[in-house]
Design a protein that fits this description.
Length: about 400
C-alpha cells in the first residue's frame, strides 16, 4: 500500500511539473522540483542528527522504567477492565497479561516495548481462536485499542516540535490528550456495539466514570482560562508531568536496587541507532512530499479543499494539515514526514504546525498495526476490524481539529 502511495506522489508531481512547463511556460519548474529533492535529502539528515540527543535521553529513561517494573504495575490497573470488555478470554489466561503489558507500554510511550508485547498478545489470543485464519472479537478490540493508542506522554511529537524550533514544544499536550482519548473511547464504543459487549456493568462503568471525570475536569479547567493562557497552561502541565515522570522512574529504579545510571546509559546508547535508522524513511517520504509541493500540485489540492470548505461557511485554516490526517492511517513515517514538512513550511508555532502535531499524536498508524499484528499470527480475514479502527481514527482527527481551534486559533 505505502509503496504505491509513494510512487503515486512522485509520478503525480512529475506530471504536474510537465503541465506547469507546457501550459504556463515556467521553464524553471523542473529545477525547482530538483532543488526540493536535494533540500529534503539534506533536511532528513539534519532532523535525524538533531534528534540524537533527545532520543538518547528518553530511551535511557524508558530503559529504567522497564526494569523498574512500572509496566507491570500499569497492567494490574488495567486487568479488571479487560476481563469485562473481552469476555472471550478466560480469567487468568496468559493473553490478559500480554495485553495489559502492551497497553501499559503504549500509555508510557514505550513503542519499542509495545510492539513485542502486542505480537505476544495476538499469539496468546490466537490459541483461543476457533478459526485460525480469522480474527476473534477479542483480537479486533485489541487492535482497535492499539490503533487509537492513548499515550500519556507523546514524547516523539515533543521531540520533533523542539527540533523544528517551537517556542513551547509541549503546548500541544492537552489537545493531544483530548484527541487521543476521543479516538480510544469511540473505538471502544463502536467495537463493543458491533460485538454486543455489555458495557453496563459495575467494573466497566467505574473505569469509564473515572476516564470521563478526568476529561471533564480537564475541559472545565481549560474552559475557565483566557485564550492566551491555554497554550501556556498546557505546556506548564506537560512539563510538570514529564519531570514528575522522570523523577518517579529514577526513584522506582533506585528502590528496586538497580543501578539506574548504568541502565540509563544502556538505553541512551540506542538513541544514535534509532536516529540513524529513521533517515531512510524520512528521506523517502520527505523528498516525495517536497516534489508535490514544489510542483504546485499539493497547493492546488489544498486550494480545492479550501474552496469547498469556505463555500459552506467554515474556517479554512485546518486545511493545511489535512494531508497529515489522510496519511496518518496509512503510514507512520509518511505522517511524521508530513508533520515535519508542515512545520517547516508554515512554522512550528503556526496553527497548521500545531494542528499537524496534534493529529500526529491522536492515533496510531492503523494499516501498519494491522499488517504487523495480523502477519505475526498468519491471519487472512480481518472481518470488521478495519472499519472500527478507521472510526476511531476519524474521531481522533475531528477532535484534533476542534481542540486545536479551541487552544490555538
Amino acid at each position: 500500500m505505502l509503496h504505491r502511495i509513494w510512487l503515486f506522489f512522485i509520478i503525480s508531481a512529475f506530471l504536474a511539473t510537465c503541465v506547469k512547463v507546457g501550459v504556463t511556460g515556467d521553464l524553471g519548474a523542473f529545477e525547482d522540483v530538483m532543488n526540493a529533492v536535494v533540500s529534503m535529502a539534506k533536511t532528513s539528515v539534519d532532523i535525524a542528527i538533531g534528534l540524537i540527543g533527545l532520543l538518547a535521553f528518553w530511551l535511557g529513561i524508558f530503559k529504567v522504567a522497564e526494569n523498574a517494573g512500572l509496566i507491570d504495575k500499569f497492567s494490574k490497573v488495567l486487568a479488571p477492565l479487560l476481563c469485562r470488555i473481552m469476555p472471550g478470554i478466560p480469567r487468568n489466561h496468559p493473553a490478559l497479561g500480554s495485553i495489559t503489558m502492551n497497553m501499559s507500554a503504549n500509555v508510557l510511550g514505550l513503542d519499542n516495548a509495545a510492539t513485542p508485547f502486542g505480537i505476544k498478545a495476538m499469539q496468546d489470543m490466537q490459541s483461543l481462536a476457533p478459526v485460525k485464519d480469522t480474527l476473534t472479537n477479542a483480537q479486533i478490540l485489541f487492535l482497535v485499542l492499539n490503533t487509537s493508542s492513548v499515550t500519556l506522554f507523546p514524547i516523539a511529537v515533543f521531540l520533533y516540535r523542539a527540533e523544528q524550533g517551537a517556542a513551547q514544544p509541549t503546548d500541544v499536550f492537552i489537545p493531544i490528550l483530548l484527541a487521543t482519548s476521543a479516538s480510544t473511547l469511540v473505538g471502544l464504543f463502536v467495537t463493543c456495539a458491533v460485538q454486543r459487549v455489555n458495557l453496563f456493568n459495575k467494573v466497566v462503568i467505574t473505569y469509564l466514570v473515572g476516564v470521563f471525570s478526568f476529561l471533564a475536569a480537564v475541559i472545565l479547567y481549560f474552559s475557565s482560562l483566557a485564550a492566551a493562557q491555554l497554550a501556556e497552561q498546557s505546556s506548564l502541565i506537560a512539563n510538570f508531568l514529564l519531570l514528575l515522570f522522570i523523577v518517579v522512574v529514577l526513584v522506582a529504579g533506585y528502590r528496586k536496587k538497580h543501578n539506574t545510571y548504568d541502565l540509563f546509559v544502556d538505553g541512551a546508547k540506542q538513541g544514535f541507532e534509532v536516529a540513524i535508522t529513521i533517515i531512510p524513511f524520512l528521506l523517502a517520504m520527505l523528498f516525495a512530499i517536497g516534489m508535490l509541493r514544489a510542483s504546485g500540485l499539493l497547493e492546488m489540492v489544498m486550494q480545492g479543499i479550501s474552496y469547498v470548505v469556505s463555500a459552506v461557511g467554515f474556517d479554512t485554516r485546518f486545511v493545511d494539515a489535512i494531508p497529515n490526517a489522510l496519511m496518518k492511517p496509512l503510514s507512520g513515517s509518511g505522517a511524521r514526514a508530513l508533520m515535519i514538512e508542515t512545520m517547516q513550511h508554515h512554522g512550528a508555532d503556526s496553527f497548521a504546525g500545531r494542528l499537524a502535531s496534534v493529529m500526529q499524536g491522536s492515533t496510531e498508524t492503523t494499516f501498519y498495526v494491522l499488517a504487523v499484528y495480523l502477519g505475526a499470527v498468519g491471519i487472512k480475514h480481518s472481518r470488521y476490524a478495519v472499519g472500527c479502527c478507521l472510526a476511531a481514527d476519524g474521531a481522533g482527527i475531528l477532535t484534533a481539529i476542534a481542540v486545536s481551534y479551541w487552544f490555538f486559533a
